[in-house]
Each structure stands twice: as C-alpha cells, then as structure tokens.
Amino acid sequence: MGFKESEENESLGSESHRLKNQLSYSIENGSESHRLKNQLSDSSENENILDFAEDTPVSRNSKPMNKKVEKHQKQRSSTDWSMGSLSYKSMDDLINSPEHNNNQIQNIEDQRLYAEALINAIKVLKTNVSRLERQVEMSDLELESLHKQILEENKRGQELLKKLYGELEVEKREKEELKIHIDDITLDYKFLLLENEDMSLKLENVENEFSSSLAMGLVKELEKQGRDFEDDVEDLMKCKLEVDDDLRNAMLESQSLKQQMREMQEAVKNSNVELSLMKSTHKKEVQKLCDQIKEMSLELEKVGEREVMVTEFGSLKMETEKLQMESTNWTSLMSEKNVMIRTLQSELKMLRDDYT
C-alpha cells in the first residue's frame, strides 16, 4: 500500500509540474501576470490538499478529504467565472485600442490553454480521489478481516492455554507419583545394600573355603596326573619296542618276499623258456604231422586204402589236439604265476609304505 501511495504522489507532482510548464509562456507576457499567479497559487493549494489527504490515516480522513476537494473545486469554479468576466471586460476595452489588439488575441489563446490545462488537472484529481476512496474501502475490509483473525487467534490461544494448563496438571501429578516411586526405590536400595554387605561377607568365607579345598584338590590332581603320565610313558616305550619288533619282522618278511619274487621271476623265465621250446617242438611236430598227412593222402590216392588212412588221420588229429591242450594249460599256468607275482609286488609295496 505504501508503495502505491508513493507512486500516486509522484504522478500528482508530475501533473502539477506539467501544468506549470504550460502556463510559463502566459506568465512571461506580463499582461495577465497577476491573475496567472493567483491561479498557480490555487493549483499549488490543490496539490497541498491532496498531499495532506494522502498523508493522513485513510480510515479517519476519507470523508473530510472529499469535502475539502469539493470546497476547493467550488472556489476554483467561482474564481474562474470571476476571472472570465474580468477578461471579457478587458477584451472590450482593448478592442477599441488597435495597438493592443495582437496582445489581446495572444492573451485569449493563453487563457484558453490554461483553462484546458485546469480542466485536465481537475479530471486527474477526481480520478485520484475516487481511487483513494476505493483504497479506503479496501483498507476497511482488510481491517475487518484482520480483526476477525485476531479474534480467532485469541480464541485459539485461550484453548491452547487451557490445554497447556491441563498438561501441566497431569505432569505435576506424574512428578508427585514419580517422587513417591523414587522414595520407595531408595528404601529398597538401602535394604539391598544391607543384603549385599551380608552376601559379600558370606561370599568371602565361601571363597576362602573354596580356595583352600581347591588348592588341596589341585595338588592331588597334579600328583595323579604325574603318575598317569609316567604310566603313559611306560606304555609308549612298550609300544615302541613292539613296533620295532614288528618292523624287524616286516623287514625279514620283505626280504623273504624279495627272495620269493626273485625265485618266482626265475621260475617264470624258465617256464617261458620251456614254453617257447615246447611251442617250437609242437610246431615242428605239427608240421611233421602235416607233412605225413600230405604224404599219406598222396599214398591213399595212389594205393586206394582210404579207410586206413582216415583212421590214421583221426589218430593224428587227436594227437595234435592233445598237444594244443597241453600248450593252453602251460599258457594258463604262466598267467596264474604272473598274477601271483603282481600280488606279491603290491603286498611288498604296501609293507614298504607302512614302515617308512
């Protein structure tokens, strides 16, 4: 609101300054200088009246300000009529003098311009007055709303005070209850202190008894553990001797197993040699029998004694099957010996792993 009023004051000042500039030319002519000075003083009085109206409180001076403006307008209208009549009389006098005719025409033009300026100023003042009246009405409404808000705030403040008083009473009662509870707790605490002193004495006695009995028990337990440790050492020594005996026996067994392995390997070699010899002899015998069969077949063809040769061929065939059976038996025997050699080698390896 203050910012708007300052802008209105500046607009009024600029309007009065413009009117003064418009009338400066007529003042310089000098023919109507006294009359124009009076009119300028009237305009300055009007401006002072408006300034006074804006500086005063709006709620109290809204109606008096309107009365002052109307009175001032009435005074100015009567002054304008009186000045107009005087100007018409002076114009009648000056028409008769030709030397002042040009000056009179100029003065009339100046008066017309001045009258238009005054009319414009009056219109501006009327608009400003109406705007100020609207502002007064708005300020009255704002005051009423503020008054309502103040009443509501007072009512709410009273309700809050009642609520606070109630809460203070509740807190006061709670404090009294807490005080009583604290007194009870202090009594219980004193009683517990007395019981604690009695318990501390009993605990000291129990600790002394327990420490003495514990010391005796520890001594006995240490003696028992010492004896048990000696017995354990003797048992360990016996176990060590037994392990050494087992190790020596295992070494002997491993040596015997090695000897058996060597013997088995030699036997395998000998059996392989015998098997190869038998295979070669069998091959030779089989080849020999085949040659004989061929010869006999040729002889059968030649002689015609086929039946005899068939019987001999069957007997030879039986002998060859028998030789093949013997060779398979030797082969199975060699495979069994190889399996035995592998098992003995694995047992020897396990014994070495156990005693290393």
Can you describe what's shown?
Keywords: Coiled coil. Residues 1-83 are annotated as: Disordered. Residues 115-306 form a coiled coil. Residues 21-30, 38-47 have a biased composition (Polar residues). Residues 65-75 have a biased composition (Basic residues). The chain is an all-alpha fold and 356 residues long. The chain folds into two domains: 2-150, no CATH class; 245-354. The protein is 96% helix and 0% strand. It contains five helices and no strands. The chain has helices spanning 2-29, 33-55, 58-95, 101-303, 306-354. Helix 1 (2-29) packs antiparallel against helix 2 and helix 2 (33-55) runs antiparallel to helix 3 (58-95). The chain is elongated and about 195 Å long. It starts with a helix and ends with a helix. The model is unreliable at 25-91 (pLDDT under 50).
* Poorly predicted tracts of residues: 25-91
Task: Note the overall shape.
Answer: elongated
Average pLDDT works out at 69
Protein structure class: mainly alpha
**What share of the residues does DSSP label as strand, in percent?**
under 5%
Order of helices and strands: HHHHH
Q: Count the E strands.
A: 0
Helical residue percent band: over 70%
Distance between the termini: 112 Å
Largest sheet: none
Count, helices: 5
Gyration radius (Cα, Å) is 76 Å
The figure for the number of domains is: 2
Region (Disordered): 1-83
Biased composition (Basic residues): 65-75
Biased composition (Polar residues): 21-30, 38-47
Keywords: Coiled coil
